[in-house]
Amino acid sequence: MQLLKMMGFAWNVVCRALASVVAALMAVTGVVAATAVTWNRTAGVDEPAVPLSVNYHFTRQCNYKCGFCFHTAKTSFVLPLDEAKRGLTMLAEAGMKKLNFSGGEPFVRDGGRFMGELIKYCKTELRWAGISISIVSNGSLIQEKWMRQYGEHVDMLAVSCDSFNADTNRTIGRQQGARTDHVAKLYQVREWCGQYKIAFKINTVVNTYNIDELFVEHIDRLRPVRWKVFQCLLLEGENAGEGALRNAARFYVTDEQFDGFLRRHAEVQTLVPETNDAMRDSYLILDEYMRFLNCRNGKKEPSASLLDVGVQHALRGSGFDEQAFLERGGVYLWSKQQMSEAELEW
Ligand code: SF4
């Protein structure tokens, strides 16, 4: 028994050392690997995962009203900038290598300045951590001035687009007011990404209203490095059930319908599909209070804030499934330094 314990301890030490080496390599090369996230599981010890890839939903506010939105505007709270920086420093110290800013709409806050300052902080003050930065935005509030000021620090910018048809976007709620031209702005942001050397990505939620649409021609023209295609997800308390601000039931598509959409777009090389099952526990979601959101029971249950209890303690309440994260391809080329010029140009 004693021998087994000692072997377990030795293995744990080896794994920790391996994780440090991998983290250091990743910091230097920008190349990501799965080892850092799995070492503790391999060791068979009861320790939380390294928060390798974190999605920070720092605001729930948004200027759009998508009917299926599953992170709705329940509060208008945003942390003070210094507190957000403190939390990001803690995450960097715990091994974070990728930080994705999301919302709500991240450009709602100060026209993107709040997020821009956090991004700059990660790439300058926390440079030692080698964190790759991505953003998910609806694109509508992005200004060229912001791209000029902060673009050099952004590795990847994803713009959400569920349709290239103005009527469908209106039906879904992907617009602000009657005059918004979501598609025109998408093309504009794409052009800026080429100009300011940011990898461009498109996110699409497949739902009842776009299920029959063919995206191939526009995706060919926009040339995203990734086209992430999600099956519309229902989450209790967000877009389904009691207390929800949305009722997304009318948007829901079955697995078969989702498969059909994927088959019709099989020729698109950059398409990365994500079913409801793949999505559910495979994201580390940090909310506006820096609490991890546990989606294991089909709703979002918050952990304690990492600002109060530390990263390791908060992670225990995250419900994060690192195996599911790896299986859905959560680890890929995050750093634009690793991408070819051609991928970053228009
Ligand atoms: S743009 Fe995103 S955050 Fe805003 S309402 Fe739509 S899905 Fe929700």
UniProtKB/TrEMBL annotation:
The keyword rRNA processing does not apply. It is a peripheral membrane protein. PROSITE patterns: RADICAL_SAM. Its cofactor is [4Fe-4S] cluster. InterPro entries: Aldolase_TIM (IPR013785), Elp3/MiaA/NifB-like_rSAM (IPR006638), RSAD2 (IPR026372), RSAD2/Viperin_antiviral (IPR051196), rSAM (IPR007197), rSAM_sf (IPR058240). Gene3D superfamilies: Aldolase class I. Residues 48-271 form the Radical SAM core domain. One of its GO terms (molecular function) is metal ion binding. One of its GO terms (cellular component) is lipid droplet. PANTHER family: RADICAL S-ADENOSYL METHIONINE DOMAIN-CONTAINING PROTEIN 2, S-ADENOSYLMETHIONINE-DEPENDENT NUCLEOTIDE DEHYDRATASE RSAD2. This is S-adenosylmethionine-dependent nucleotide dehydratase RSAD2. It comes from Macrosiphum euphorbiae (potato aphid).
